[in-house]
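Worked example (supplementary).
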Amino acid sequence: MSILGTRVLRTEDPRFLTTGGVYTEDLQLPGQCHVFFVRSPIAHARIRSVDVSAARAAPGVIAAYTGADLADLPLLAPPMPQMISDQMGQPLLARDVVRFVGEPVAVVVTEEAYQGEDAAELVDADYEPLPAVVDPARAGEPGAAVLFPEAGSNVAATFGDPAALQDDLFDGCEVVVRRTILNQRVAPAPMETRAAAAEWGEDGRLTAWIPNQGAQGTRSALATMLGLDEAGVRIITPDVGGAFGAKFGADPEHAVVCWVARQLDRPARWTETRNENLIGMTHGRAQIQTVTIGGRRDGTVEAYRLEIVQDAGAYPRFGAFLPALTIMMCPGPYAIGRAEAVARSVMTNTTPVGAYRGAGRPEATAAVERAMDLFAAETGVDPAEVRRKNLLPKFSEPHTTAFGAVYDSGDYVTALDAALAAAGYQELRQEQDLRRAAGDPVQLGIGLACYVEITGPGAEAGGPKENATVEVHADGSATILTGTSPHGQGHATVWAMLASEELGIPVDKITVKWGDTDLVPEGGGTGGSRSLQQGGAAVQQAARELIDLARDRAAAHLEASPADLVFDPERSAFAVAGDPDAAVPLARLAETSRLLVRTIFSAPGPTFPFGTHVAVTDVDTETGKVVLRRVITVDDAGTVINPLLAEGQRHGGIAQGAAQAFLEEVIYDADGNPLTATFADYPFLSATEVPSFELADMATPTSYNPLGAKGIGEAGTIGATPAVQNAVIDALAHLGVRHIDLPASPQRVWRAVREAAAEKGA
Amino acid sequence: MQLELVVNGQARADEVEPRLLLVHYLRERCGLRAANVGCDTTSCGACTVLLNGRSVKSCTVLAVQAAGQQVTTAEGLAGPDGELHPVQRAFREEHGLQCGFCTPGMVMAAAGLLAENPHPTETQVREGLEGNFCRCTGYHNIVRAVLSAAGAVDREVTA
Amino acid sequence: MIPAPFDYVAAESVGQALELLAGFPDDDAKLLAGGHSLLPMMKLRLAIPSVLIDIGRVAELAGIRVDESGLVIGAVTCHADVACSELVQAEAPLLAHAASLVGDPQIRHRGTIGGSLAHADPAADLPMALVALGGSVEITGPAGVRSVAAEDFFVGFFETSLEPGELLTAVRVPRQQGVGWGYQKFVRRANDWAIVGVACADGRIALANMGPVPLRARAAEEALAGGAPVASAALLAAEGTDPAEDIHADREYRQHLARVLTRRALEHQR
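After joint prediction of all chains, the assembly is encoded as:
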């Protein structure tokens, strides 16, 4: 009986449920001191002076530092130097200029944690305000404040060439719709904020405990920021309380904590407050999108254009690059004859934008799914029909799109039909009709999203790959070393399942380790939904190679030919074929010398999970309040190794996607002051705002790895946002509403209803 | 000032400053680090513990306010032999946790909820947990876990 | 995220609390009951008292009873106890309902009725509820005990008519048995403060978050009293209001909500 595909409970859980996980804030380093950051209260200003003398004299203060103290350290350079202007580096502590509210300006270091906040209040920073640019639509215009005069403009990167857009792309289309829509800025807001603990050894080596999504990448980022050789840095990854794309690599604060530890020759630690997290951790999304869609009255789409302005924030981080992924995925699962896309990333005096669950692909799906509904409304064709008409037909051989994405396998129409059936689409439309006829103040909306997304992209040289080491011990247990970096995904359980399947060792006797760069010096981390299809595949491969290696030892042990031996996972033993008593347990073969294999699994490329989400909303036309009634999804990510965990990933993704659709948004005022910088103001989703979700199963294997698995981690987010948004608008379509920007807050919804009524009356 | 109270059934006496938050008292002085700090505005509930059997957000209680009272944390919920409390067991069985950061607070809030309402509806569970944020699970399996535990929980949660 | 340092003393009686209060200059000492209005402010360093006088366990301030005038609720009764009290549910169900909606369960286990009223957040449930109920607060000070009607108690944005050295000791609500009541709290998210709230009982309509204090929708009340149908009376609910604008709602939307929610509160009375 294969363990794969079964609902194995997580081996991680007992300790999380009793003593709790051990997160960075839980670690105790003897002799530690506490670091507290002083941050800019103003969005754009020249720093006249930063006076830490009063802070230095406060109780418990060991030291206080400003940007001047770190002047010999390099700036945090923007990623993708070949694509993004390198004139836009960020000092670890601001030096001459601050460019966003929350930018670190100084640190105070204290004996006790509570003293830090007291001392920080005594730091006296004097700023000369500069004009701030907050609206990305304005950031590229002449006259807008320029954040980096040396760079010449606020444009950090461009993708595609606007001059190359074809004027005649929509010629011949019977219907053309064009709309500028917003994919709003959101805060990743993992429950664990950012943190770091650092200490330097006698040997001059740095050991840093940092919650991250890939210790190897964090080591590399820290080493660069501190001007160190990577060999001189060890990263250890404690339990991580959620990441969602925003804990890759390292932020200036992490490097400053390490630097402080060296300065003071004492372990140093830092945990940010939630307020700091909501303005200091990179934000997500933040695209202004102009969609143009054209085609025939019968609902056939012939042409599509997407123009993006990416708000990159004050310093280019990964978010400045994300439009490249949006462009790559812009046609989605559709066969659109002519499509083109361009983007530019611009700097604004706001928190830098980074990756957030989906990282560029939710934006692509949200745009094309809005466009599909706009097109459906204009042509009068049912939104499900428009989609069915335009989806790529089923394919099992790789399909290359006009944007260079090679979709590995796909069956989009089946996913659409399955979701519609599970939702009871016809019945829902009937109920909608009844409520419309009755003029019910609470209207019903049904929203769809068909998506395909790219997982496991593997930007590193050599393409997508991951390493794994599997070792069997003489006592019958096993250890796995993985280059992935779970933070809730359950790799400890699933990698153990994969090895257990091959080795016949029970899951609870298999320990999985990750996140310590001394133990696992190489690895791609966890993000982009890569882990199972690369890291899991590597574990399976290593276990299989271990059996091959063990076979030779068994042959020697049993004095038989390797070809005559059979490995029986049920017994976890080799036996001579036809003579089960002539057997040797696998563990025995580890007695005289270690029995381990390290392997690298290389994938031929990224994979493309797909699906359809259907959302059902009640919309109160009098107040604008949206109640999410149902979310029905098909998320096909190929073979499912542990359905319990795969469902959990889908649930979490759906909730985050739905939250973006009608609740969450980061808001700045015109001067760049953040207005949603606490959990009281930032409308973080609670249990009352979402229903239980309805998941339908579909698994179209990929040929890209022996597991047949694609990535599931981000799919839920990608499908849910447009499905919920479309549902809200659909509820009001009969009133003439064609679009409501994300998020569909009550005030926005109410406004849309009113404006549509005014237009009708006019 | 002197503080005396009972934590997970053990009497304690400590010297504390008045502004020490109960959550930090539990974490730093008692070494009970399951409860986490997740926000600054009494919003997220990651710090939830039971005070005299009722769920409270320990980030918004001064340790000194708990003088002479009984505090129960997630560490104290399991049986003396380490056997999982029905709520903890249900969270595991229903995959009601992923990264685990919200979990101790969520479990304590659930335990408090079931102590007051042993057979809640799904809506009552969701409303009962509105003070506990989770970013990973989408709440779906948390709700299932609480409903599952509802059948198995005693009315009283003993300290 | 951590309050500035302060001294702390636990009072054992109302008398002792008054003595302690008298010993400190205005605003230097704050009373602590459940702490769920005060401590969040202190953690954000928006309030920096040098002394906290804990009255959370003063026995005289606890308890719910009924006398000739109606319900008498001790100031440090927590919202959960107000919500679950059979007495309150029988005598003033609107109040029990309002208390059941404050924050979330954990907050309701700590926050107190006295604390919430003294905090005087115009967006909160209990101030609006008390105004709708025609209730009053009992205030004890060095000069003795006085009673202030709810409407006169809230004088400004987070400001009450409590004088320095005074303590809110009880809340009184006239008996409401058989009186229909309505309650509408409009939020974006479950444990938020109301974007707009409406409570109505016995001809009174109170509004939350439509101004610096809970307001009476007098034009709507008069229309109703004059026999106007609910729908048209409700259209007057926002008369005389000047609501603030924030990230959730601008002025126009708030006034619209006030009208809609008033109509619904009146239409769906229990």
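Two points are worth noting when inspecting this output. Chain C touches chain B at residues 1-8, 10, 32, 35-36, 39-40, 43-44, 52, 54, 56, 80, 103-107, 109-110, 190-191 (CB under 8 Å). Residues 251-267 of chain C form the longest helix (17 residues).
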